[in-house]
Please model this.
Amino acid sequence: MKLALVRACTRSACFELQNNTCYTAPASFRVQLNGQTVLEACCTNVFSLFSLEPGKTYHLEVLATDGDTGTLDFATAAESFFVDASRYGLVNDGVTDNTAFLQAALSTCPPGGTVYVPAGTYRTQSLFLCSNTTLYLEKGCTLLGGTDRREYPILPGVLPCADEQHEAYLGGWEGNPLDCFAGLINVINAENVTITGQGCINANADNGDWYQHTKVKLIAWRPRLFFTSKAKNVTLHGVEVCNSFSWTIHPTYSDGVNILQLQIHNRADSPNTDGIDPESCKNVNIIGDSIHVGDDCIALKSGKLFLGTVMHTPCENVTIRNCNLNRGHGGLVIGSEMSGGVRNVTVTNCVFTGTDRGLRVKTRRRRGGCVENLRLSNLVMERVFCPFVFNMYYSCGTAEKDRWVWEKTPYPVDGGTPAFRNIRINGVTVVGATASAGFFYGLAESPIDGLSLTDCHIEMARGAAPEKPAMMGNLEPMSARGFFLRNAKNVEFHNVTLKNADGEAYDTDESVDGEF
Model:
C-alpha cells in the first residue's frame, strides 16, 4: 500500500492512499496513530485526522481488510497561540449575532495562532481571516449564515487608484467586476491561512431570499460561501459546507489553494450553487472532495473578456484527484468565463454520478482565451447525458438570439476568438450515458486542435429519453448517439469501445481530421 501525506496543519492532517481505484479504496481499512486505533471502517482513498497536537511527530499505520498495510511518519505544524473564540463572548444559540465576537477573535489572533470555535451553533455574517492564522471548527460546531442581506458588507467591483489611471478589482459576478456581497468566509490580500476541523459552515441561504430573482441585482450580487481574492497558500480542509448563496467555494486571483476532503451539499434546485470554482488561480489542489450541488460540481474559470484581457491571468496548474462528483449540471466544467485562459489541468481517480455532463468545456465567440493541456485519466461516469462535451457555440439565455453566437460559417479570427487544444483523455469508463458518447464542436474559424481518447469504454443507456448533449442553439435532442464531431483536427481515438449506441459510432464530416 502506498500512503502519502497530502497536508499537515496544526491540529489536523489529510492523507491519501495512492492506487488506481476511483475515490473508493480497494478495501475498507482502519487507522492507528501511535499504536492506538483512531478510525475504523474507512472506505475512501482520502481520509483525515483531527484533534491532533501541534508540533508533534506521529506514526500512522493503515490496516486494510484485504491484508494490505501502509505506514507513514508525519509531523503537525507548529502553533504559536491557541485562541479560544468562546472567550470573546460567543453565544451558541443559533440566533444571537456572533459576527463581531468571531471577527474580534480572528483579527486579534497573533501570527501562527489558531482560532478555535467549540461545538455549538453560531449565527454570523461575513468574516475576514488574517495572514498566518488557522480557524479550527470543532466537531458539532456550525457557523450559520444570517438571512438578511442588508447585514452583509458589499465588496465593490472596482477600486480606483489614487493616480486616477489604474484600478483594482474585488467584487465580481459571473466573470465581470461588479459589486457583490462579501462571502460568509473571506480571505483577501492574505497568505498562509487554513480553515480546518470537523465542523460545518452553513450559509443558510435556503432560509433567506437569496434564491429569489437570481438574475436581478438586489442591492448587490449574491455572495459566495467562501471567497478569496489575491491570497496565497490557502487551505480549506475537512469541514462540511452547505446551503450556499451562489458559488460555494470561489477562490480568485490566488496562488496555492488546497481544497481537501470537503463535504459540499446544496439543494438540487438551488440556482448557481456550483461546488468549487477557482477563477484565475494557479497551483490548485482539489483532492478527496464529495460534491452534491444545484449547478456545476467543479468549474474552472478566468473571467470574461474585459477581465481576461486586462488581468491576463489564466487558471492554471490545477490537480483534481479522488473526488466524488455526485449530481450537478456538470461534473468538471471549464468556462464559459475563460477569457484569461485555462491550462495545465490534471484529473484522475474521480467518480461522476448523475451529473448532466461529465467533462464540459464551453465557450463562444467574443470570449477569447485558450483552454489547453488537459489530462484526464482513470475516471468512472454513471448516468450522464454526455460524458465529454467540448462546445464552442455555447448558448444560453438571451445569447441564443445573437447570430454571432450560433452562426456556423467562419468569422474573422481576432482577440475574441477562443481556442481549445492539446486534450488527452484515457482510461474512462462510462455506464448509462443517455444522449451521446461525446460531443465535440469547434468553431469554424478555430477548430479543436489535438484531441486524443485512449482506452475509453462507453455504454449507452437503452430507451433513454432524448436530451441535448450540449447547450447550443438549433441543436436537436439526441438519444444513445455515438460520438459527434465538427470542426476538429489532429484527432486520435485508440481502443475506444461503444456499446448500445444507435446508428454510427462516429458522426463526422469534412471539417474533422483524425484517426478513429
